[in-house]
Amino acid sequence: MSYILTLNAGSSSLKYAVYRDGAAPELRAVGQVDRIGSEAAHLVLKREGETETRELGAADHARAVEAILDICTPHMQGAPVAGVGHRIVHGGTLFDRPAVLNADILSALHRLVPLAPLHQPHNLAAVRAAMSAFPDAVQVGCFDTAFHRSQPWVDDTFALPREYYDKGIRRYGFHGLSYDYITGELDRIDAEDHHRRTVVAHLGNGASMCAIKGGKSVASTMGFTALDGLPMGTRCGQLDPGVLLYLIAQEGMGHHQIRDLLYHKCGLLGLSGISNDMRELEASPRREAKEAIDYYVFRIRRELGGLAAAIGGLETLVFCGGIGENSALVRARVCEGMEWMGIAIDPEANAAGADVISTGAVTVRVIRTDEEGVIARAVSAALAA
Ligand code: ADP
């Protein structure tokens, strides 16, 4: 018997899950280390309905990984962690599938840091930490960009001079682990008719949509970075690049200020001035909260039309992510008046968050996504090979 650990590292948090390896890896525990980089990092482990917590004091990613090992070891009956799977935001043009990580691959991934400066360094810090805490384990990288490598050139490029494309300024697309999971689920649910033409709306704190045909990504709303497309909790989504020129020339803003604005102060938070959390906005009586939701829904509907056009029609629409899975209001408002596209939903099924909520020609599904499960299966496959 052996175990698989999955790691999903952000700037100040490290989410993890522990699986028992087997034909289908079995989830045994989940947890999170919060406040990494502060003096008061905090570890949570949830298993078999119980929650354990530990105060770690000052902790970087390396200390966080050691603490995860410490808290999990007593529950593993002496069996080893044979593989560690890492969510890595950027695989550039190098990876269209998971890869067993070594020093050469790590340095190639390090060269992609400028393409994802807020995520990639933390992902790689977790890989280094895991390599030292689990020196005998196979380390597997699973890339959020990999699922989209199948996109045709027209959705891979911008209309910049070609030399920029050659330099890597392309539309990579993200949330690929979630789309991979959803595609697998659609196959499992309905193998005959499965996902001929599907749009998936992954609506979490980060949000994107993807048009999938025959199981392959054709177009997505996120592009070069995780800023494009839909408005998100605190990110702007689609923005006329002329706005940036104006902010630089007229407002005197520099690189760091603009980065902070676009990643942390826009989206639902910026529009509402209240919160980045959809639950709070739905509960708020204020006009600004309503307008933020109006804009959010409007952009999803607009992208839905464009993505369906990119794949020549639509058989299935899937909602996933914290908002997609839980907000009946957002789902209802996205689908409202979309009968012309074959989209109609049953209010009761929608309110209940049923697996299928549609009454029209397009099957509308709510699927709980599972990015960790995708990582665990990739590690299991690497171990079997
Ligand atoms: P992340 O991208 O960080 O994994 P999640 O997928 O957990 O984020 O999504 C977080 C979002 O889901 C938040 O905006 C939160 O308000 C929203 N959310 C969670 N539950 C509900 C709910 N019951 N109703 C509306 N929104 C919800």
Quick take:
ATP binds at residues 15, 202-206, 277-279, 322-326. Helices cover 38% and strands 21% of the residues. It is an alpha/beta fold.
Written description of the protein model:
The protein is of the alpha/beta class and 385 residues long. It folds into two domains: 3-143, Nucleotidyltransferase, domain 5; 176-366, Nucleotidyltransferase, domain 5, CATH 3.30.420.40. The protein has 15 helices and 13 strands. The strands form two sheets. The chain has an eight-stranded mixed beta sheet, with helices on both faces. The chain has a five-stranded mixed beta sheet with strand order 11-10-9-12-13, sandwiched between helices. Strand 3 (26-34) and strand 4 form a beta hairpin. Helix 6 (176-189) packs across helix 15 (371-384). The radius of gyration is 21 Å and the shape is globular. 44% of the residues are buried. Adenosine-5'-diphosphate (ADP) binds next to helix 10 and helix 12. InterPro entries: Ac/propionate_kinase, Aliphatic_acid_kin_short-chain, Aliphatic_acid_kinase_CS, ATPase_NBD. Catalyzes the formation of acetyl phosphate from acetate and ATP. Can also catalyze the reverse reaction. Keywords: ATP-binding, Cytoplasm, Kinase, Magnesium, Metal-binding, Nucleotide-binding, Transferase. The active site is at 144 (proton donor/acceptor).
